[in-house]
Amino acid sequence: xxxxxxxxxxxxLCAADPGAVGAALKGALWWHGxxxxxPLDPKTGAVSLWRAYDGGPPAEPTEPNQxxxxxxxxxxxxxxxxxxxxxxxxxxxxxxxxxxxxxxAVRFYTPPGEDARTLLTLNAARSGNYLFLSExxxxxxxxxxxxxxxxxxxxxxxxxxRLAIMSLHGDQLALSLGxxxxxxxxxxxxxxxxxxxxxSCRNQRPRLLKTLGAALILDVWLFPGxxxxxxxxxxxxxxxxxxxxxxxxxxx
Length: 252
Prior knowledge:
Blueprint: E1 29-32, E2 60-61, E3 70-74, E4 77-81, E5 90-96, E6 101-109, E7 117-124, E8 129-136, E9 139-144, E10 150-154, E11 162-169, E12 172-177, E13 180-185, E14 195-199, E15 216-224, H1 234-249
Antiparallel strand pairs: 1-15, 2-5, 3-4, 4-15, 5-14, 6-11, 6-15, 7-8, 7-14, 8-9, 9-10, 11-12, 12-13
């Protein structure tokens, strides 16, 4: 028997239960992969809705997603199972009134030999630009469609889920993956205005099939108006720690 005379961090005894870190993530929108939060269409068996944890706005199938997104499992992991070249996307409409400052995070698993490709997109369609996160050929990339900013990091080679965090603050973009981080500063603000969050795709268009990969998307977070990787405030640092703690103690 292992006995410790010190307190364990929150979540250490309850695996990936959202309640273990929920308080530290207050203010975030969190789509947590579970059968409870991802009801299935009785006719197609596809995910008909991804309910946000703790009452946030749901993510719904995009127009091209005609019964394609499935509830997937790998070991003890559950989430949205995407298929390469097939539109399995979901969208949470108008989830932030001003996309100039925001943080996106995603916990995902890419099966060996596959590419996740598009994971998340913050689409400020009215301003004519969007920022997306993708994984291809072992490289994780965050960039915007208008070519204002781009950052990349190599993905670990191990067969395990990953946690990626992308932080946007005006003309600054940062990306972290595990212990690694990279930053870039653009010549102008990268995004602005109201934006929608797309999961596993970039927009409502039925084409762009080469951007659609085979990830199992386990958790998605959006922090509207907060740039966690660009902030030293105690609240933002607690949120970063909570994201990493959830990933650490999640079943793999």
